[in-house]
TrEMBL record:
Signal peptide start-end: 1-19
Keyword Ribonucleoprotein belongs to the record: no
InterPro entries: Dimeric_a/b-barrel, YCII
Organism: Chryseobacterium lactis
Name the record gives this protein: YCII-related domain-containing protein
Family: Belongs to the YciI family.
YCII-related domain residues: 63-135
Keyword vocabulary terms for this entry: Signal
Length: 156
């Protein structure tokens, strides 16, 4: 009986293993897409990462702060529509570095990224300060924005 169970489990594991192998087949390479996204031979490219942290200015007036944050969100949308920003979002937990959020800009130029981050009303008001880092990631990253609108019922 134990031998029968062992054989059954072995066949089952082999079948599942084969199914996993089949799923992991590499998709067909698409040169046109890779070129349009600026991908290197690994499907990657250089970006610029901006870490937003708590700035030196604290705005006590709730209406003024709401205005600054609305401007912050509008600016993110504008930069995304222009293809300059590919990822933006807040951190959900406090951290020792006081990082509040991050941007990934679609440029390898730190100077260009700095111009774009300085267009943010919350940065201009001193609510956020920032650090800029070169970053290397999937060239397909900008494609997620195309589908984000299909899955969100409303904007923040």
């Amino acid at each position: 009986m134990k031998a029968k169970i062992f054989i059954t489990l072995t066949v089952l594991m082999a079948t599942l293993s084969f199914a996993q192998e089949k799923k992991k087949e590499k998709p067909k390479f698409n040169q046109k897409l890779a070129t349009s996204l600026g991908a290197d031979r690994y499907g990657m490219k250089a970006y610029t990462l901006v870490m937003l942290s708590t700035g030196n200015t604290k705005i006590e007036d709730k209406a003024k702060m709401a205005e600054v944050m609305n401007g912050h969100m509008s600016n993110i949308g504008k930069l995304a529509d222009e293809g300059k920003i590919v990822v933006a979002g807040p951190f959900l937990e406090k951290n020792k570095e006081n990082y509040r959020g991050m941007f990934i800009f679609n440029t390898k130029s730190k100077e260009e990224a700095e111009q774009w981050v300085k267009s943010d009303p919350a940065v201009q008001a001193g609510v956020f300060s920032y650090e800029i880092f070169p970053w290397y990631g999937s060239a397909a990253l900008p494609l997620y924005l195309k589908h984000h609108g299909e899955i969100s019922k409303e904007n923040p």
